[in-house]
Amino acid sequence: MPKRIIVIPAYNEDRTIAEVVSGALNFADRVIVVDDGSRDRTGLLARQAGALVVRHAVNRGVGAAIGTGIEAAVHLGADAVVTMDADGQHRPEDAGRVFDRLAQGDVDLVMGSRMKKSDDQGHMPAHRVLFNTLGNLLTFALFGVWVTDSQCGLRGLSAQAARTIELRTSGMESISEFIKEMKDKHWRHDEVAIKAIYTDYSMSKGQNFFLGVKVALKLVFRRFIR
Length: 226
Description:
This protein has nine helices and seven strands. Strand 2, helix 2 and strand 3 (52-56) form a beta-alpha-beta unit. With 226 residues, it is α/β, with parallel strands linked by helices.
């Protein structure tokens, strides 16, 4: 029987993690929460909600947490791995749709897109649209691949892609690094339209201008200097 595993990187997310894990378990066989050095009850609440918790002793960044989670999922024999955010921004049923697209067997990477037209799209705040568009343009300039939502944290990997992905950055830039891996390893890919849930809490966790500049510089370094 295929094994679907959801990986959730989490840092100080005790306000939302239990609900996120509970929802994710409706669409996955296992949920792995990578507690990235949290100073609150994130790990405890995730475990109580039914997740397998892997903990970093110190905060290493979302990219490092995603890498740890994917490695753990591969070790557990995952046939497909989906990553989603811990702040409640992603609907669990959209993770299920990513799994279903992977199960068709003709793609290696499936990316959720909040920008792709859909009857159930939701409304993305204007400044998020701007950040996403700039991220898409930068990703295209660096890697030569156009995607509609390069900064979305909901995405899925086939078993082969999960075994071979190499994330070398530890911060938010790792999200765009998936695109580099897709280009370098010739992965087949697709996008599915998803609805993002925007709350005051999830909005406070997102990118700002200065973080975006920092991420962009790290991506350029990764692309040309390695």
